[in-house]
Amino acid sequence: MLSEHTLSTAATYLACGVDPNRSTLFVQSHVAAHAHMSRLVGAVAPIGLLRRMIQFKEKSAQHEDVSLGLLDYPVLMAADILLYEPDLVPVGDDQKQHLQLTRDLAERFNHRFGSKANSAGPKFAFKLPEPLTAANSARIMSLTDGKRKMSKSDSNDFTRINLLDPPELIRAKIKKAKTDAIRGLEFNNPERPEAHNLLALYATLANKSAEEASAECADMQYGEFKQRLVDATVSALSPIQARYHELMSDHPTLMDTLRCGAERAAKVADATLRKASAAMGFLQPT
To answer: The domain at 157-246 falls in which architecture?
Structure first.
């Protein structure tokens, strides 16, 4: 069920270390300003631009009956970001297109309704957020194909490591992960995408720099390397899994965390929504 998946996702974030006292964790649908802002930002979103988004192109090619929700989803994502006027947005390499769309829509809004364009009205313009990407893990690829993105929606579960996978399943997946016939692992060799991907996974999960991981594994055979990757993966995920199950066993506390987060988020989101709608000329409630 969607509601159970929502709670599971929230518990996963908390188990991975998100501190609700320092970060605002909430369910998007619990803050009505998201849907409202999506309609405002959608007023400056060209259909042609949305049709060129990679996710829409790929899924519309696979399915005959494509919904407006799929086409309009990047606008909602842009609204999610712009409501909170961030300076930086954590993204993977594959998500940069969505952030660039957010910046494009913000610029279009600012040009049409912003401070300079609307000199007689309320002074407001969206910030243009910048991407923040991790050095070694900005784009993690499939375990079975180093040229394809690792995806939770892939029908083959052996293409990815799930955060809640038990140790024996992790071992089986890494054992079957695609490799090449060359001894040693290295970064940034276009002829060896699987070596690059597995080494990036190891560096991230073992908390090593790219230089440290490269030096350690430069002359290592895949059998030995895969065992180290298994150990690093299990070690990194075990405390997350233990904390996840603890959180999921206490739904009332988890729901209370989300309720408090939604209340905090709504204060910021509602303020931004009022400024944006006023800049567009909408009559504001008293």
So the answer is: Orthogonal Bundle (1.10)
